[in-house]
Every structure is written in structure tokens, then in C-alpha cells.
TrEMBL record:
Pfam families: Amidohydro_2. InterPro entries: Amidohydro-rel, Aro_Compnd_Degr_Hydrolases, Metal_Hydrolase. This is Amidohydrolase family protein. The keyword Acetylation does not apply. It comes from Cupriavidus cauae.
Length: 283
């Protein structure tokens, strides 16, 4: 990966984009990728988006099509250690030394992207051991799967003591929205105190014309249950498979979804800064 030009956060109130990806067209793909990117999403371009939209920090998530090959992600994190943190995808048998190297680079969590895949048996030895090691390092587990399937994995993760970050509003059924029983079950997990939800990628849940309205209704339900102390916002840049979406639009949606500026500042600031372990940057 070509090095990005060193950058410094703009002199604004700290604000975190909790979900983005970087990659280059032509990288080695996972054995069975869900899709194949035909473009680049370069670190320098992402940092420019942060600067242009008043975001000081970002969280890079390993894209599904790269599988457990995290080298490109780690190179990006090492290029911008003050501004970036990462979420990796790992094999449950990964060695401790590799986890430690990831932590040193800025990884603070692992992702289980189960879209189109069966849930792993988290009670088996490899997974149980991995979750213990993740928990010991203070990392979280990020979940990406339809709301109807969240219960396949959330109870086991909570029983293991893990902190959980749920992607993209919990991925409610587009036709059901907040009436999705899986979404309602997600709301009930707010009482655990160990679940966070990303207000991100509304266009993956609803048609474009409904993103503002449907996203607002879902955001309001999540805000009531989780408070701004356990909600996050993410751009989902570069909006893979949705190239018409702009970064600025995704940031504007947050203002459309949550009226109270103090709540927006909290979820963009202290909530994200603390969860993703940005030290010394709280507002």
C-alpha cells in the first residue's frame, strides 16, 4: 500500500467515523468472496473525506472480500496511528503473537460478518478460546448479520463477557423496519450494558428515498433503548456496491436522525473515542 501523506486531525471537536474500509483493486481475495471490488478505496482519499466533513478520527473495518488477510488494513493503521483504529477478521486458531501485533498496530476488535454464512458454534474450543483472548485484550466483537439472526450469536458472546458492536442498525428486514422481531430483540439487549449499535449504511436496509425517514425511526428507537452512550455513527465509505452514495450525505443523515446536537456530539465523540480506545482525545 502506498503511504498516505501524514495528516493531523483538524482543530475541531473530536468526532469519529466508526465504519469505513480501505483496499485496492487487485488484492488477493478470500476463497469465496461475496463480491469483487472493481475500484480502489485508498487511505489518502479516506483521510480527505474525514477532513472535508469535520471528522477527526476513523475506524477501518476489514472488508469481507479480503477474508482474514489483514495486511492492507494493518498498513493503513500504522500509517495513521493517532487518527485510526481497526477491526480485523481472524481465524479462531490465530496465534497470540499475531493478535498482539494487531493490537500494537491499532486493532481494537474482530468482526463476524455472517451475511450469507452460517453462524459458527461459539461454544466450541477454538471459538471459546478466541473469545477469551479477545475479552482479555479489551477488544470488542463486531456483528454483521440480519436482525432475525442476531440471537444466533449474541447470547453466546454476552455469556463469554464480550462487548458487542452491531453493524448497520442491526440490519432489520427492509419490509418490516422497526417491526422486525429481531430488531425488537436487539433493543432488549440494551439492558446488558455491553452492546453498541452503529447508525450506518441505511441504504443497505432501505431504498435510498426511505433512508432519512426509516433511518430516523430506527435511530429514535435505538436512542431510547441504548442512549447516545452506546450508539455510534459510521459512513460505510466507500459505500461498496452503492457507488452513488456520497460521504456528505451519510453524515447529514445523522443530523436528520437525531435532533439533539449534544447527543450527536456524544455518540460521535466520547462514546466512540472510549469504545475504540483513542487515548487522550475526549472532548
Amino acid at each position: 500500500m502506498p503511504p498516505a501523506s501524514p495528516s493531523a486531525p483538524p482543530s475541531t471537536r473530536p468526532a469519529v467515523d466508526s465504519h469505513a474500509h480501505v483496499f485496492e483493486h487487485g488484492l488477493a481475495l478470500a476463497a469465496v468472496p461475496r463480491y469483487r471490488p472493481d475500484h480502489d478505496a485508498l487511505l489518502g482519499d479516506y483521510l480527505a473525506q474525514l477532513d472535508a466533513n469535520g471528522l477527526t478520527h476513523g475506524v477501518l473495518v476489514q472488508p469481507s472480500f479480503l477474508g482474514t488477510e489483514n495486511r492492507y488494513l494493518l498498513a493503513a493503521l500504522r500509517a495513521e496511528p493517532a487518527r485510526l483504529r481497526g477491526v480485523a477478521v481472524v481465524d479462531p486458531a490465530i496465534e497470540d503473537a499475531e493478535l498482539d501485533a494487531m493490537a500494537a498496530a491499532g486493532v481494537v476488535g474482530i468482526r463476524l460478518n455472517l451475511i450469507g454464512l452460517p453462524a459458527p458454534d461459539l461454544g466450541t474450543a477454538p471459538w471459546r478460546g478466541l473469545l477469551e483472548r479477545i475479552h482479555a485484550r479489551g477488544w470488542h466483537v463486531e456483528l454483521h448479520l440480519p436482525a432475525a439472526r442476531l440471537q444466533e450469536v449474541m447470547p453466546a458472546l454476552l455469556a463469554a463477557g464480550c462487548r458487542i458492536v452491531v453493524d448497520h442498525f442491526g440490519r432489520p428486514d427492509p419490509a418490516l423496519g422497526v417491526a422486525d422481531p429481531g430488531f425488537d430483540a436487539l433493543l432488549r439487549h440494551a439492558d446488558s450494558g455491553r452492546v453498541w449499535v452503529k447508525l450506518s449504511a441505511a441504504y443497505r436496509n432501505w431504498p435510498d428515498a426511505q433512508c432519512a425517514q426509516a433511518g430516523r425511526l430506527a435511530a429514535q428507537r435505538l436512542l431510547e433503548a441504548f442512549t447516545a452512550g452506546r450508539l455510534l455513527w459510521g459512513s460505510d465509505w466507500p459505500h461498496t456496491q452503492h457507488p452513488h452514495v456520497s460521504y456528505g450525505a451519510t453524515r447529514q443523515w445523522l443530523d436528520d436522525w437525531i435532533d439533539d446536537a449534544a447527543q450527536r456530539r456524544q455518540l460521535l465523540g466520547d462514546t466512540a473515542l472510549n469504545l475504540f480506545q483513542f487515548q487522550g482525545d475526549s472532548a
